[in-house]
Amino acid sequence: MTINEIQDEIIGEFAFFDDWMDKYEYIIELGKDLPLINEQYKTEDHLIKGCQSLVWLHADEKDGKVQFTADSDAIITKGLIALMIRVLSDQEPADIAAADLYFINKIGLQEHLSPTRANGLLSMVKQMKMYGLALQARN
C-alpha cells in the first residue's frame, strides 16, 4: 500500500468513533500492538529530541524499503508512534522524505493533543523524514 492509501485507511478507521475518548482508547490500543524495538536501540542516540516522553526510534533498510521500530514510556505517545510507523514503515526512503502526512489533521490529532504531545508528534514526523532523507542520500 502507498502512504496515501494507508492514511486514507486510518482516516476511515477514526471516522467510526464519535468522541475523542474513544479515539484516545484506539490510539492506546495501537500502542499496545506495536512490535517492541530491540533493546540495543533503546539508547540516547535513538531518542527523539523534542518529545516530553521518552521515544526511541530505529530505522533499517531492507530491499529498498525502510523498516521502523520504536517504543515509548508513555501509552498515548506509544500509540502515536505506532500510527506513524503504520504509515511510513515499508516505504521507500524518497516517499517517506516527501510524504504529505495529511491524516494527522484529518483525524483531528493536532487539535486534540496537548501542546507538548503535538510538538512530540511533529518531532516524530521530522525524525522519520530525516531517516528517509539520509537513506535516500546513501543510495
TrEMBL record:
Q: Which family does it belong to?
A: Belongs to the SufE family.
**What InterPro entries does this protein map onto?**
Fe-S_metab-assoc_dom
Q: Which residues form the Fe-S metabolism associated domain?
A: 13-130
A Pfam family for this UniProt protein? SufE
Supply the name of the protein.
Answer: Fe-S metabolism protein SufE
